User: Which sequence fits this backbone?
């Protein structure tokens, strides 16, 4: 298992105007994906595929469960 943080920065269009978007989210990976994630240099650009779920049953915090990844 690998627990890590993802940082996202992009420019999006909202109501016809450009907007800078920045966020950070917790993530978790298991099995082979976790083995690969632990060796990646911070700042590496990647596409992560998975699902969002609550951190725990009583928590409102979201965590991305990564099932697959591709280097960009």
Assistant:
């Amino acid at each position: 298992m690998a627990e890590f943080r993802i940082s996202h920065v992009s420019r999006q269009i909202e109501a016809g105007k450009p907007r800078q978007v920045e966020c950070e989210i917790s993530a978790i990976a298991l099995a082979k994906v976790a083995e690969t994630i632990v060796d990646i240099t911070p700042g590496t650009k990647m596409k992560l595929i998975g699902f969002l779920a609550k951190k725990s049953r009583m928590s409102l915090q979201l965590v991305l469960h990564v099932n697959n990844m591709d280097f960009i």
Q: What stands out?
A: The chain has one domain: 2-71. The longest strand covers residues 2-14.
